[in-house]
Amino acid sequence: MPNSTRQTTTHNFLRFLVACSITFLALATTPSHAQLLPPPAADSTEQASAPAWPEDSLGRRTPRGTVSGFIKAVAREDYAKAANFLRVDPSLQENQDETKLAQALQRLLDQSGTIFPYSLISNDTEGNQEDNLGPNLERVGTATVNGESFDLMLEKVEDSTGAPVWQFSSQTVSRIPLKAGEEISTPLVNKLSPYVLEENKWGGVPVSHWLAILILLIVAYFIAWGITRLVLVVTPIFWHRARTEPTAGIVKAFTLPLRICLTVWVFVAASQQVGLSIIVRQRFSEVTFIVFMAAVLLLLWRLIDATTQFTGRRLAHRNNMAGVSAVLFVRRAFKLALMVIGCIILLDSFGFDVTTGIAALGIGGIALALGAQKTVENFVGSVTLIADQPVRVGDFCKVGDTVGTVEQIGMRSTRIRTLERTIVTIPNGEFSSLKIENYAHRDRFWFHPKFGLRFETSPDQMRYLLVELRKILYAHPKVDPDPARIRFTEIGADSLNLEIFAYVNAIDFNQFLEIQEDLYLRMMDVIEESGTGFAFPSQTLYIAKDQGVSKDKTTEAEEQVRKWRKTGNMQIPNFTPEHISKLSNTIPYPPEGSIMRSKTS
């Protein structure tokens, strides 16, 4: 075995041993008359609605109280008191010693009996009404006599005041072996223990039984460890899918919870087989139940991690960031639900009435909704973000006035890393209602500069620039040729304006900046070669002798207007359709000398 594996095993065992020691000391120092997890007192609402029965001094008003009271009595070896928890058939009561019956029931439970953990026994005066056993019967465990197994039943009867009490049923009591042929053999733990450890008791239990618990815990852990190690080694040999994800991750997720479950199962089975006292077993029953449920919840927790991590990696490999966001959200939601379930199980194990609490959630749902409108709004917003997918984790976007990269989409809020490397947290309810501009989904980048040239630029220089700048757009491998245009769009107040419209094929914004920079430099070279330059906001003042207007041209224009008036042919305010038809297509376009004119002729 490699050193790292050996060290890990040693550390795990030491941690397990320390935990067992702490649990052992906690239980051993608990007084014999104390229940491990005492049920809480009934609340005022229950007391107000329940009949006002006088308090039973033995605590037999509920099935849990009866079992707990019997265990306390036999732990103190007060069998006369323990006999009060047994219901003996009245026709046989005179012929039976109830004290010996109590002792015999303890021996039966020590050797071959099991009582349910307290959290699984009803703490209601009426018992469990959903077990299909009738209103006056309650099943609390099992026992075996002469190879035949039977249920340990409680029966509800009335005491002298007419109040209900629960006792071990007469049918169960009749199965308790008293005859010589039915005597129960000496427990194995008593046979193997020295006399001094058997005679000295701690908490109503022989010291040898406490020592046996520690030994059984250690043995159970090593058995469980060996089985899980064997499973890890053998499974990939016979099941090839266990060598690859996600099966390998799921198998590993099972390891620790399975080891804990096996430890609990082996410990419980072995403690009954060796005949450990029912007193100590009942004290440990709640611990084993809680540990077992914790192992189940841990298994589910690890399965959630294993499956979501594998799914997330596959989606990320496919560049499906929306799927990754959904997986993260689902994982958090499932883990939150798992924690709620765990808390409910834990509270139920401690004896709290969780059904009442769950029912109260329905009544308090309206108040909760009114008091947590923003929380509900944010949750709905997160669902909208996952379903609609306007942004994904890793997208560069603009949300409202915030520009940055989406780092996390949570159940309540979304986090954005800004260009200044700060984190902006936006509640999902607000996020989903804002204007969202997602730059990550751009397939191309818009190249749209405007150049202002000097007024000294001649028409032929302008024609030269239009031709040469178009050449750059058509020739550049990163510029999409359709559309790729440059136009003389405006004679401005202080410049002759050219406008470029094209799209650049780039992977991301950084590459676009590189290509844009290259285009700018090439266009600057062309403008310089044309003999003109960029205009600056300015005014040019010409000081010269005014030659006035041309009198000849003015006379010609006025003569032409007089002819239009004389002939009635002045096309003002509108041209006639006949004149428009006559003028149609009389201007040569493309203009004379254009290369496009020779292609269209």
UniProtKB/TrEMBL annotation:
Domain Mechanosensitive ion channel MscS C-terminal: 451-531
Compartments, record wording: Cell membrane
Region (Disordered): 37-61, 581-601
Signal peptide: 1-34
Domain Mechanosensitive ion channel MscS: 375-440
Membrane topology: Multi-pass membrane protein
Family: Belongs to the MscS (TC 1.A.23) family.
The protein, known as: Mechanosensitive ion channel protein MscS
